[in-house]
C-alpha cells in the first residue's frame, strides 16, 4: 500500500494511474450499463453524427457508438487482462520449475520455449486463431501462448540466479525444502520485473488484438472491442473519420496510461531506489 | 570463436526441428484443406480426392512429415499450392524485400533512438527527458496499421509526394526503390524507435551511476564526450539484445506493414499462406524465419562481446 | 510518377501517359493499372483456377465458342457450327489464319490435341466430368476431317454441352498450342490465341498482360467474351491489392486507374475528381443456405417462417447502398429465363412467421448462422438477417469464421445456416444445380427437385425448359432450402480519361476495347 502511494506520488505514476483507473472504470461501466444495446442495429439511423439521442453518433449499422465504446472497453480490458494472467501464470509455473529442477526437464522445456520464440508472435497467434476457431477465449489463448516464452525466460533466469544467493542457500541449510524456499524467497524477488513485464504486455495485447482484427482474426464481431472497431472503421476513414478516431483514441489513451504507470512502477521497484 | 559459432549452430538444430514439428502439426489442425479451398464449387468430388492424393494429404501426418523432411534434405521445398510457384525462390525473393525493409527501419530507429535515449537519461527528470519519454510512449500507443494508413492517406493521397502501391528493388533502381520504401520504413521504425529509446534511456541511467563515469567527468570531459566515449558502448549492450529480438521477430512479423503498403514481403506471404492452407509454402517460410531467428541471435551475441568486454564467449 | 527505363517511358497513370504521347516527343507505353485482390493461382486455364484467375486466363486463351454479353453462346475460334437433327453431332468450322502467340496458325489438330490433353485425367481439368457422362453427356469422339473442321460426337442429347465448353471455370476449353507443355507433358505457359499474352507475373505484386500485336480479331461487334477484341493499351497491369482501404487510397493517389469498389465506398468515390462510377447487376448469387437435414431446420414450417421473417429488400438496400434489387430466385434477373414467375416469393411478414413457428412448436432452440469477413458483404448480410430473425422470435446466433473454416463446413454439410455466395452460373439449369443434389454440400436434396433438374439439363426447347425452371423456382420457394437475398451489384471506379470499360453481369472484367478517350 505504501509502495502504491509512492508510485502515485511520482508524476508519471499519478497521471498513468489516473488514466488507467479511468479506463477500468469505463470497462466496469460498460459491463453493466450501456445506453443502447451495443449490437442493436437501427437501419434508419446509420452514420449519424453526435446528437442528444446518440451522444457519439452511430456506425454503419446504426449501432450506438458510445454503447459500443463502453462495451468494447469491457471486452478489450478483459481480453488483455486474461491474456496477461494466463501468460504470467503459465510462464511463472513453467519458468520456476525449469529453474528449480534444471537438468533434462529444463532443457526440453526451454527448447520448446526457444522454438516458440522463433515464431513471430503475431503470426503464431494468427495460426492458432485459425486452428482454435474464432472466439474471445481463442484470442486470449493465442496471444497468451505468443507471450508465454518471454515470461518463462524471465522467471527461469531469476530463479537460476537467486538459487545461488546466500539467503536462499541459508534457507535450504536451515532444513527448509527447496520447494518451500522457492515459494517463500525466490518468487517474491522476481515479482518486480514481472509486474513491469505484465503492464507492458497488457499494452501489447491491446495493440495485438487490433492487428489481429486488421488481418482478419481478432475477437469476432459483432461483439465490440476497441481493436475490432478500429479495424472495421478503416474503410470509412475519409467519410466518417470519427468511427475510427474514437476507438483509436481509446486504445492510445489506455496504452498511454499503462505505459506511464508501468514506468513509474519500474522506477519504484528498481532495487537501487530502496 | 569459430568453435563457439559452430556449437551455437549445432544446438540450434533441435530448436529448428521442433519449430518444424510444431508448424507441421499446427497447420494440419486447422480445419479446411487446400484442395477444398481451391475447388470449393466443384461438382466432382473425385477431383478433390485426386488433388488430395497429389498433395499427399491423404497420408497420415507423421508420414507426411517424414516425406517432407526427406525432400528437404535434397533441397526440395516443394511447390506452392496457392500459386504454383516453387517455394524456395519465392521465399528468397520475399525475404529480401522484408530484410531490406527491416534493416532500414531498424537502422533508422537506432540512429534516432540512441541519441534520444541518451540525452533523456543525461537530463533525467528535466523537461527534455519528459518530452522524449512522452513522445516515445505516444508512438507506442498507436496501432501500426493505423499509423500506416494515416501515412498513406497523407503523403500518398493528400500531398501525392510518394507512390502508394508497388515495390522496386533497390538493386534495379535505387532512387525509385527508396521512394517506395520511405513510408513503410517510417511506419515500421516508429514503434521500434519508441521501444529502443526507452531501453537506451534506462541503460544509460544505469551506466551513469557507475564510478568510472564520475571519474571521466572529474577529468573535466564535456558531457557530450562522456556520453559518446564512455557511456555509449556499455549502455548500448542491453539494448542490442532487445534489438536482436525485435529484428528477428520483425523479419517474419512485419505482416501488417507489408499489407498496408502492399509490399511483397515474407510476413504477408505467411498470412496469405495460412488463409490458403498453403502447407508447403508455410512450412518453408517458417523454417526460414526460424533459421533467421537463430542466426540473428547468434550475431547479436557476437556483437555483445564487442560492446561489453566483460562478456566472454564460450 | 515518371521514370525512364531503357529509353521508354513507363507511366503509372494512363492520364499522364496521354499527355506525353500527344506531345509526340517520346514514345509512351500506355498502361492500364487495375487493382486486383488476389494473386494468380497459376497459368494453366481450367486447372489452376479461381474466379479472378479465370478472368485473367480469359484474356490469354480462347475456345471454340464463348459467352456473349447476354449469356448466349456465340462462336469464337469457330466460324460457325451445326448440330445434327438427333442432337448428337456438333460440327465446328474453324476460322482461317488465326495465329497463336508463337506465330503458328491454328488448325483442327490443335483443337483435337487440346481436347485430348484436357480429357486426360492427369491434366486435372476441373470440368472433365461434364463430358464423360457423369455430370453431362459423354463425348464419344472428336474427329478432324480437315484442318478447319472439328466434329464432336455425343452419346446423348444435351442442353448444356456448348455452355460447358464456354465456361470460364473450364478455361473456356481453350485451344492451346503444343508448346504450352514440355516434352513430358508438363505445363509451361499458355500459348493461346487470345488478345493478350502474359508478361511478368510477380506474386504479391502484379500480373502483366501484354497486347498481342498479331491478334486476329473477329469482325462481329464486341459482345461479352465473344465478338471483336481490340486491345487499346500496350499493357494491363493488375496490381495485387487485397486490402480495400489500401486500393482505395491508391486510386485516389492516382496510382490505379480502375478499381472494383465496395458499395460502402460509393458515396466517397463519387466525389473523387475525374471519376466515373460504373455498375452492373451480376449473376453472383448472395444467399443464406439452410441445412434441411438439421433436427430443427428439417421442419419446412420453420424454414418458411425464417423466409418470412427476413426482409430481403431491406438487407439488399443496406448492403448495396440502395443500388441493388432483391430477388427470391437463384436464377439471376439478367437471365432471359427470369420471368414474372421467378418473382414469386413468400412475402416479408413477421406475424405470419411467428404463427408458423408456434405451429411448428419451435421453442427457442438456438440456430447458428455462419459467416465470414471476406469482401462481398457475407458478414453484413448475416448480421442484418440475424437481427431480423431475432425480431421474429428465432434465436439466431452469429458465428464469424475464417473463410477456409466456413468452407469446410459448407463442403461437409455440417452446419445449420450460413451466409454464402455462388459465382455466376450462366445457364438456368446450372443456377439450380449448384444447390440441388445429394452431395453433402448441396442444400436441396428432395428427389422431386433432383428429377426436375435432370430434365432441365437435357431439354433444349426454350419453352419447355422455361416451364421446368418455373416449376423448380416454385418448389424452391415452398421448400426453402435457402433464402435468396439477391444478385450482387458490382461497382467500379474508373478515371474519366478512360473509355470503353463495361461492367458485365457475368462478374468478369473485360480489358479489350478499353483505352484512352
Automatic annotation (TrEMBL), chain A:
One Gene Ontology term, aspect cellular component: plasma membrane
Major location category of this protein: membrane
Biological process, per Gene Ontology: transmembrane transport
Domain of life where this protein originates: Bacteria
Transmembrane stretches, start-end: 12-33, 69-101, 108-131, 137-155, 194-220, 240-262
Keyword terms of this UniProt record: Cell membrane, Membrane, Transmembrane, Transmembrane helix, Transport
Membrane topology: Multi-pass membrane protein
Subcellular localization: Cell membrane
ABC transmembrane type-1 domain ranges (all copies): 73-262
Database matches in PANTHER family: ABC TRANSPORTER PERMEASE PROTEIN, OLIGOPEPTIDE TRANSPORT SYSTEM PERMEASE PROTEIN APPC
Similarity remark: Belongs to the binding-protein-dependent transport system permease family.
Protein name as it appears in the record: ABC transporter permease
Automatic annotation (TrEMBL), chain B:
Pfam entry (one): BPD_transp_1
Cited PROSITE patterns: ABC_TM1 (PS50928)
UniProt xrefs under CDD domains: TM_PBP2
GO BP annotations listed: transmembrane transport
Keyword Cell membrane: yes
Segments traversing the membrane: 9-30, 95-118, 130-158, 178-196, 239-261, 281-307
UniProt record similarity statement: Belongs to the binding-protein-dependent transport system permease family.
Protein name: ABC transporter permease
Localization, UniProt: Cell membrane
Gene3D superfamilies: MetI-like
UniProtKB/TrEMBL annotation, chain C:
Domain of life: Bacteria
Cellular component annotations (GO), alphabetically ordered: ATP-binding cassette (ABC) transporter complex; outer membrane-bounded periplasmic space
Annotated Solute-binding protein family domain residues: 73-432
Coiled-coil residue spans: none
Record carries keyword Signal: yes
Alphabetized InterPro entries for the sequence: Peptide/Ni-bd (IPR030678), SBP_5 (IPR039424), SBP_5_CS (IPR023765), SBP_5_dom (IPR000914)
Keyword Transmembrane: no
Localization: Periplasm
Predominant place of localization: periplasm
Signal peptide: 1-28
One annotated GO biological process: peptide transport
Pfam families assigned: SBP_bac_5
Gene Ontology molecular function terms on file: peptide transmembrane transporter activity
Keywords: Signal
Family affiliation: Belongs to the bacterial solute-binding protein 5 family.
PANTHER family per the UniProt record, alphabetical: D,D-DIPEPTIDE-BINDING PERIPLASMIC PROTEIN DDPA-RELATED (PTHR30290:SF38), PERIPLASMIC BINDING COMPONENT OF ABC TRANSPORTER (PTHR30290)
Name this protein carries in UniProt: ABC transporter substrate-binding protein
Gene source species: Paracoccus alkanivorans
